[in-house]
Design brief:
The chain has about 525 residues and is an alpha/beta fold. It has 17 helices and 18 strands. An 8-stranded parallel beta barrel has the order 2-3-4-5-6-7-8-9, surrounded by 10 helices. Helix 8 links the parallel strand 7 and strand 8. Helix 12 crosses helix 13. The longest helix has 20 residues. The two termini are about 35 Å apart.
Length: about 525
């Protein structure tokens, strides 16, 4: 088995992506999670670039890691400065990491136009920097920046830069597609030639500007690279770095003869992916291969019919192997197979007549603007109502929302909601102020119901989305509101549609409360989704 070493640069290269920011505590928590996954190297940052990275390297020394080596990242020494006198070199050594990664120029255009030095001085800068670091740390990795661009335009010089690194004692030479414009055939040819010329183990570092980062990384491995550098979820500058989730899954599951990560850790890939998104305060990418929520979601009736007979008919891998799960979506495109599979997921009784009624109603509602893909709780309630099994825990007799504003030098608004309802034999009439109509309605509904159903205190709204359905109707357009709610052990989505955004919000909010109460009463099974806190 050939060992493929996975080098993670989420904490440095990934943090250079637009909108990505990690605090010091974030970086330490991510380090622990990446180490548990079984990554071989974790690049912590550039110790000279900012105080946070310097603090990270001091703090991580006291952390006991199970497997990963921490790497400090830096550039070659400055022009006309001895390595031992260069502040960047000193900072790298002072980080006291098991590995140091040095990036240098392999494209003559960068040597002349960016560094402004001669080709020979660049070679000395590479050799001196690696030589200095090898005297102070166990392992030095050389990242050949813009290698594939340099190799296309001046292959002889590009190879000389690699040889300079090898002669100075680099433990790894990593070929970088820094601009992300290489094609798989370019990568394959270059890696093969470098492997034949050098005895030093090779790595690959690809960016995704041509949407080929994963393909290029796999091509490099197939032609001799034994280290892959990238980020979780493909975070990084511009279009991002190669996504290590896809690389790891492909290498582990589709290429026989490769060993990577720690044994038994691949099934935690989805969990780690979502943890990184949460830590970065970013939305999950639903259609992300392998780990996305839609990666194994099927909507077409023919697909679901096939999956019910043999999952392999429409799935390239078993989703459980990467910690993901199969999902069946319900929409106007659904057939009875979708409905039957969805009812089975929730343990709902079914018959042919009910399936037909549910399918007809779903198609009618979707024609009005409803979508149940992110609102499965509303779908479950719809089924139970059509089956005559749902007994509402409360009956709303009316609601009223008022918004008032004050103009002037310090303008302000206030919102108030009033609700009348019946719960059992009791009538409730409550009022609540809120930061907006939905918040006010939520507060009034809670006041009315929490005395009857104390477990509603566990429930809170975690997401609220509004989408205009028929935008050409202007201010009379119909809107769809999707609300995501959460309690101690479940997450669920509900939907409402109306020309009035408050009514659409109310419909989704009322369903959220109905589902919580039905679930607590054992009238419906909970979904398979779990709160974020339990996976973080």
């Amino acid at each position: 088995m050939a060992r493929i070493f996975i080098y993670d640069t989420t904490l440095r290269d990934g943090s250079q992506g637009e909108g990505v920011h990690f605090s010091l505590q974030d970086k330490l928590l991510l380090t622990a999670r990446l180490d548990e996954l079984g990554l071989d190297y974790i690049e912590g940052g550039y110790p000279l670039s900012n105080p946070k990275d310097a603090a990270y390297f001091r703090a991580v020394r006291d952390r006991e890691l199970k497997h990963a080596k921490i790497a400090a990242f830096g550039m070659t020494r400055r022009r006309d400065v001895a390595a031992e006198d260069d502040v960047g070199m000193k900072a790298l050594v002072a980080a006291e990491t098991p590995a140091i990664t040095i990036v240098g120029k392999s494209w003559d255009l960068h040597v002349h136009d960016v560094l402004g030095v001669s080709l020979e001085e660049n070679l000395r800068m590479i050799g001196d920097s690696i030589g200095f670091c090898t005297a102070h740390t166990a392992e030095v990795i050389y990242d050949a920046e813009h290698f594939f661009d340099g190799f296309r335009r001046n292959p002889d010089y590009a190879m000389r830069t690699l040889q300079a690194a090898a002669d100075a004692g680099a433990a790894w030479i990593v070929l970088c597609d820094t601009n992300g414009g290489a094609l798989p055939e370019d990568v394959a040819e270059a890696v093969a030639q470098v492997k034949a010329a050098l005895a030093v183990p090779l790595g690959i570092h690809t960016h995704n500007d041509g949407d080929l980062a994963v393909a290029n990384a796999l091509a490099a491995v197939q032609h001799g690279a034994r280290q892959v550098q990238g980020t979780i979820n493909g975070l990084g500058e511009r279009c991002g770095n190669v996504d290590l989730c896809s690389v790891a899954a492909n290498l582990a599951l589709k290429y026989p003869g490769y060993e990577l990560l720690l044994p038994g850790r691949l099934e935690h890939l989805t969990e780690v992916s979502r943890y990184v998104y949460e830590t970065a305060n970013m939305n999950f990418r639903a259609n992300q291969p392998f780990v996305g929520a839609s990666a194994f979601a099927n909507k077409g009736g023919m697909h679901v019919h096939g999956i019910r007979k043999n999952a392999a008919s429409y799935e390239h891998i078993d989703p459980a192997r990467v910690g993901n799960e199969r999902r069946v979506l319900v929409s106007e495109l659904s057939g009875k197979s979708n409905i039957a599979e969805k009812l089975s997921e929730y343990g709902l009784e079914q018959d042919g007549g009910l399936l037909a009624r549910v399918l007809d109603r779903v198609q009618d509602l979707e024609n009005e603007g409803y979508q149940f893909e992110a609102a499965e709780a509303s779908f479950v309630l719809l089924v139970e109502r059509l089956a005559g099994r749902h007994h509402a825990a409360f009956e709303v007799l009316g609601y009223h929302v008022s918004v008032s504003g004050r103009l002037g030098r310090e303008p302000s608004t206030s919102t108030e909601a009033t609700i009348k309802l019946r719960a059992g034999n009791s009538f409730e009439h409550t009022v609540s102020e809120g930061d907006g109509p939905v918040n006010a309605l939520d507060g009034a509904l809670r006041k009315a119901l929490e005395g009857h159903f104390p477990r509603l205190k566990e429930m809170h709204l975690v997401d609220y989305k509004v989408r205009v359905i028929n935008a050409r109707a202007g201010t009379a357009a119909r809107v769809r509101v999707v609300i995501e709610s959460q309690d101690n052990d479940d997450v669920w989505g509900t939907v409402g549609v109306s020309e009035n955004v408050i009514e659409a919000s109310w419909l989704a909010l009322a369903d959220a409360f109905e589902y919580k109460l039905a679930k607590d009463a054992g009238a419906v099974s909970s979904s398979k989704r779990v709160p974020i806190e339990s996976t973080a």
